Amino acid sequence: MDARESFNKWLADNKGRYGFTVAFDPAGKFEFKENMTAEDMKAMEACSAKTITGAIMGGNMIPAMPVFIVVDPAGRFVGSFGLGP
């Protein structure tokens, strides 16, 4: 089962359990390697730039997955919390 199929299954299994919107980031999760080279770091930055988190926060951060982004009723960014790479 791929990541999207797993997410869809989780979403169906938990329908109605949460009172907030849950979304799937199509960029997916970056697969880290030990002893990453400069080329690997560039690939990580490119992956981060394609994520929803990267689009909102910008920069060359390590893309945390999962990440929780809080938006108020007016659509303003309130904050976020990531569970790590």
Structural summary, described in words:
The chain has a two-stranded antiparallel sheet with strand order 1-2. It has 85 residues and is α+β, with helices and mostly antiparallel strands. The model has no long low-confidence stretch (mean pLDDT 78). The chain has three helices and two strands; from the N terminus they run H-H-H-E-E. It has helices at 3-13, 38-50, 52-57; strands at 67-71, 77-82. The chain has one domain.
- For the termini, the CA-CA separation is 21 Å
Q: How helix-rich are the residues, as a percent range?
A: 25-40%
How much is the radius of gyration in Å? 15 Å
Strand order of the largest sheet: 1-2
How are the SSEs placed, and which strands pair?
Layout lengths: L2 H11 L24 H13 L1 H6 L9 E5 L5 E6 L3
Short description:
This protein is of the alpha+beta class and 85 residues long. The protein has three helices and two strands.
